[in-house]
Design brief:
This protein has helices at 15-34, 36-48, 63-66, 73-83, 93-100. By secondary structure, the chain is mainly α. Helix 4 runs antiparallel to helix 5 (93-100).
Length: 120
Protein backbone atom coordinates (compact mmCIF):
# COMPACT_ATOMS: atom_id res chain seq x y z
CA UNK A 1 0.00 0.00 0.00
CA UNK A 2 1.32 3.44 -0.90
CA UNK A 3 0.76 6.26 1.56
CA UNK A 4 -0.43 9.73 0.49
CA UNK A 5 3.18 10.88 0.84
CA UNK A 6 4.21 8.43 -1.89
CA UNK A 7 6.10 6.21 0.59
CA UNK A 8 5.41 2.49 0.50
CA UNK A 9 3.69 1.35 3.71
CA UNK A 10 5.43 -1.74 5.12
CA UNK A 11 3.10 -2.01 8.11
CA UNK A 12 2.01 -5.58 8.89
CA UNK A 13 -1.36 -4.49 10.25
CA UNK A 14 -4.23 -4.79 7.79
CA UNK A 15 -6.98 -2.20 7.57
CA UNK A 16 -9.46 -4.25 9.63
CA UNK A 17 -6.99 -4.67 12.49
CA UNK A 18 -5.96 -1.03 12.23
CA UNK A 19 -9.64 -0.07 12.60
CA UNK A 20 -9.98 -2.30 15.70
CA UNK A 21 -6.91 -0.66 17.27
CA UNK A 22 -8.18 2.81 16.46
CA UNK A 23 -11.61 2.03 17.89
CA UNK A 24 -10.09 0.57 21.07
CA UNK A 25 -7.91 3.63 21.48
CA UNK A 26 -10.77 6.07 20.91
CA UNK A 27 -13.28 4.20 23.09
CA UNK A 28 -11.07 3.01 25.95
CA UNK A 29 -7.87 5.09 26.14
CA UNK A 30 -8.91 8.58 25.02
CA UNK A 31 -11.67 8.82 27.66
CA UNK A 32 -9.07 8.06 30.33
CA UNK A 33 -6.97 10.96 29.11
CA UNK A 34 -9.99 13.25 29.23
CA UNK A 35 -11.19 12.20 32.69
CA UNK A 36 -10.60 15.24 34.90
CA UNK A 37 -10.70 13.19 38.12
CA UNK A 38 -7.72 11.15 36.89
CA UNK A 39 -5.83 14.29 35.90
CA UNK A 40 -6.57 15.86 39.29
CA UNK A 41 -5.40 12.75 41.15
CA UNK A 42 -2.03 12.73 39.40
CA UNK A 43 -1.70 16.51 39.66
CA UNK A 44 -2.24 16.26 43.43
CA UNK A 45 0.44 13.60 43.70
CA UNK A 46 2.88 15.86 41.93
CA UNK A 47 1.97 18.79 44.15
CA UNK A 48 2.47 16.68 47.30
CA UNK A 49 5.87 15.32 46.35
CA UNK A 50 9.04 16.50 44.76
CA UNK A 51 9.13 13.39 42.57
CA UNK A 52 7.48 10.05 41.90
CA UNK A 53 10.54 8.22 43.26
CA UNK A 54 9.62 5.58 45.83
CA UNK A 55 12.29 4.20 48.10
CA UNK A 56 12.51 0.43 47.80
CA UNK A 57 11.43 -1.64 50.76
CA UNK A 58 14.35 -4.02 50.26
CA UNK A 59 17.69 -3.84 48.42
CA UNK A 60 16.74 -6.57 45.93
CA UNK A 61 13.58 -7.73 44.25
CA UNK A 62 12.01 -11.08 44.99
CA UNK A 63 11.10 -13.63 42.34
CA UNK A 64 7.39 -12.92 42.95
CA UNK A 65 7.89 -9.30 41.91
CA UNK A 66 8.99 -10.49 38.46
CA UNK A 67 6.40 -13.23 37.88
CA UNK A 68 3.00 -12.82 36.31
CA UNK A 69 0.34 -15.48 35.92
CA UNK A 70 0.12 -15.81 32.15
CA UNK A 71 -1.02 -19.42 31.73
CA UNK A 72 -4.06 -18.35 29.67
CA UNK A 73 -5.91 -15.23 28.58
CA UNK A 74 -8.26 -15.19 31.58
CA UNK A 75 -5.37 -15.52 34.03
CA UNK A 76 -3.47 -12.78 32.22
CA UNK A 77 -6.50 -10.46 32.32
CA UNK A 78 -7.01 -11.21 36.02
CA UNK A 79 -3.34 -10.48 36.68
CA UNK A 80 -3.62 -7.12 34.93
CA UNK A 81 -6.86 -6.29 36.74
CA UNK A 82 -5.22 -7.09 40.08
CA UNK A 83 -2.11 -5.09 39.22
CA UNK A 84 -4.27 -2.17 38.06
CA UNK A 85 -6.74 -2.48 40.96
CA UNK A 86 -8.30 0.87 41.91
CA UNK A 87 -6.52 2.50 38.99
CA UNK A 88 -7.98 3.89 35.77
CA UNK A 89 -6.69 1.02 33.59
CA UNK A 90 -8.39 -1.75 35.60
CA UNK A 91 -11.54 -1.93 33.43
CA UNK A 92 -9.45 -1.98 30.24
CA UNK A 93 -7.60 -5.24 31.02
CA UNK A 94 -10.04 -7.75 29.52
CA UNK A 95 -10.57 -5.70 26.35
CA UNK A 96 -6.82 -5.29 25.97
CA UNK A 97 -6.28 -9.06 26.16
CA UNK A 98 -9.11 -9.69 23.70
CA UNK A 99 -7.65 -7.15 21.29
CA UNK A 100 -4.18 -8.65 21.70
CA UNK A 101 -5.37 -12.06 20.50
CA UNK A 102 -5.86 -10.51 17.05
CA UNK A 103 -2.10 -9.96 16.83
CA UNK A 104 -0.73 -13.24 18.17
CA UNK A 105 0.12 -14.66 14.77
CA UNK A 106 1.08 -11.82 12.46
CA UNK A 107 2.50 -13.00 9.16
CA UNK A 108 6.16 -12.15 8.97
CA UNK A 109 7.72 -10.74 5.85
CA UNK A 110 9.77 -13.29 4.00
CA UNK A 111 11.98 -10.77 2.22
CA UNK A 112 13.83 -9.86 5.42
CA UNK A 113 16.40 -12.05 7.13
CA UNK A 114 15.48 -13.12 10.66
CA UNK A 115 18.88 -11.81 11.73
CA UNK A 116 18.09 -8.22 10.71
CA UNK A 117 16.18 -5.85 12.96
CA UNK A 118 13.58 -3.82 11.10
CA UNK A 119 11.98 -0.70 12.53
CA UNK A 120 8.75 0.71 11.16
Amino acid sequence: MTLPTGVENTNLINSEDRELLTTFFKQRIVPLSEDLSIKETYAQRRADRDSFFVKRHSPSMTRVEFELDLKDRDAFAATLETHWQNRPLQPVAQDLITLGTRFEQLDEKVDLSEFVYEMF
